[in-house]
User: Fold these one by one.
Assistant:
Number 1:
Amino acid sequence: MLGLLRQRHTLQSPQSAHILIDGQAYLSFCSNDYLGLANHPRLIAALQQSAAQYGVGSGAAHLVSGHTQLHQQLEGALAQFVNLPAALLFSTGYMANLGIVQALVSKGDTVFADKLNHASLNDAMLLSRATVKRYRHRDTVQLARLLEQTGSGRKLIVTDAVFSMDGDIAPLPDLLTLCEQHDAWLLVDDAHGFGVLGEQGRGSLSHFRIASSRIIYMATLGKAAGVFGAFVAAEQVVIDTLINHARSYIYTTASPPALAGAVLESLQLIVEGDEQRAHLQLLIAQLRNGLRGLPWALLPSDTAIQPLLIGENQAAANLAVALRERGIWLSAIRPPTVPAGTARLRITLSAAHSAADVQRLLETLDELAR
Ligand SMILES: *Cc1c(COP(=O)(O)O)cnc(C)c1O
């Protein structure tokens, strides 16, 4: 038994720090709801009001008749929020990545990718039919060498901003410098930075204070933003190219307008969320300090994603089961999601957690370590 079989469990409560699964109450450390907005009363009210005004289904693709005023308004607000000229909504982050890469590069072009990028970026590269060159995790020296060896065609560097299974941050300023030196574009997937990093949660570009017409910024709206969907922000010509060539944008039904209404409210909450972000930072420090004495290594991460490296698949699975028996819901992440031999418990913290919640996790892990 490899301990690799994937199984689902049924949630019987809203997404939150405290959840109900299969009739049992758990303290959960495995959602991406970093600001605790998924069940926020203001988002619920915004969704209800938008549905009352615009109905439920969009009924058509954006380019046919599904693009409502709420979608339009949200695209403007998102572009402004991340300080880029234009934005475009996609139904999901997975589809956004497929659409962006496929629309911008093809045969004869080259995509340069961090080895630990999200699966959606990997799939997108394959679908684009561009040449793929993967560099070691965060290794800009190897990336520079690969760029030097590449001749004609368009060049696109793609990277997670915050790596989804490791929690560390890509060296975006260095990547941007390489883009300038080699006339390349930079696709930044900020699924785990949007709403959390940077001034007022404006994301990883704000975190590093970088801006460039070479950047194609993508973020999801189902994680810190607490709703659903994704968007791309970039120069207007890039957005126009996506509208005309991104197949996962063109050939699919627009997401329900009420979701756009909810995200508009979520942007407000994110801007007002300095207290939540400060609380999240305190929890991260509490967890890292508290885990120091344990036999398992914590990966070097400053973000809400705090992976505890276990190693063997079965050991990670056993630990997750033992935690569940003690009322704590955590997922073991195993290959192929992460490299073989690096099975881990991916602890994610949320502003919805209290210091007492984190203390309970620490005490339980301590008990299991002995
Ligand atoms: C979650 C995630 C996505 C996919 O976004 P969805 O909206 O869930 O489809 C893409 N990239 C990264 C890094 C992610 O973590």
Number 2:
Amino acid sequence: MSNRFYDFSASLQQLEQQNLYRRRRIVDGPQAVELQVEGRRLLNFCSNDYLGLANHPDVVAAFRSGADRYGCGSGAAHLICGHSSAHHALEQELAAFTGRERALLFSTGYMANLGAISALVGRGDYVFEDRLNHASLLDGGLLSGARFQRYRHADSEDLQAKLARAQGRALIVSDGVFSMDGDVAPLPELVRLADACQAGLLIDDAHGFGVLGRNGGGVVEHFGLSAEQVPILMGTLGKAFGTFGAFVAGSAELIEYLIQKARTYVFTTAMPAAVAEATRAGLRLLQAESWRREQLQALIGHFRRGAEQQGLQLMDSATAIQPLVVGDSGRALAASRQLADLGFWVGAIRPPTVPAGSARLRITFTAHHSLQQVDALLAALGKVLR
Ligand SMILES: *Cc1c(COP(=O)(O)O)cnc(C)c1O
């Protein structure tokens, strides 16, 4: 081809040389602890299906009967004719679950964050983000056109100093549980600063819902914070809920505002109603079956004790995300490959997903893992990281 625009080979080669090239593995069959991956059976330690609901019979049955009742496509955006009684019921159930007046469904978490942040702040405003926030939160801040500032990870003093210099409306944005580190944001501090500075506060609890809190209410339940203290609460449905999509929960007025203003809400097709029906089943299980959270905590404790005995360098995480930082991308990639040869699937997370020099193995647990499987993983990690 002579048109140089289409020549991507140098960029691709560079990624390969830097050990930053990404490849997809083809999975056959449903999400489970054991996955069939390109002719191999691998023990899955990289999924976000924390409660093991992605292939739960009740969730699958609700999806099927949802398809029987509503068909497949939703036909249009929510504001045209795509908002079904299934979507509406799920929104009401999510509002009740989160203890908020209303909830609003988005088609993905990425879109929820882009849409909400860019609706809430704009030119002349400020947005303050933890530097380890999920890409969708950072991108939402950049898209908004507000003055964009990152504060040091989980550092409320740095945030306070930055807030003190801001003149105008400000929004503070943070992950509840950090997706690549597994640690929890200093939420009570963020709440205090937001109140003191009359700033907005948006918490993305993609990895806290279902996992943290007695009832799976996530990081706000973990800290015992009210709807007034965390007025904008976002969650995703593709992780512990076991399905797909996302929501923002808050006051009736906030939700009404987002319906008018969030462009990723207004200008996109509604998720299939059957997905909403499946999610209603996922939400019921997430709330009712607390044994899943208890099993997860048992696995996490078991893993951390075993890793410590082996002298593995753990991060400060009490959640289902247990990363082992190895630093170099090539080393992380090689470790992940060796683990696969031993029958374990653990993802190598590299820049730009994590800061340069902090490539890691991101180990995640689900309620369906057994203690024996965790022991087997620990033995394999011992071999590979020695
Ligand atoms: C996964 C994730 C998202 C994106 O959600 P999707 O529904 O997968 O688009 C947003 N924020 C955080 C913190 C996440 O981990």
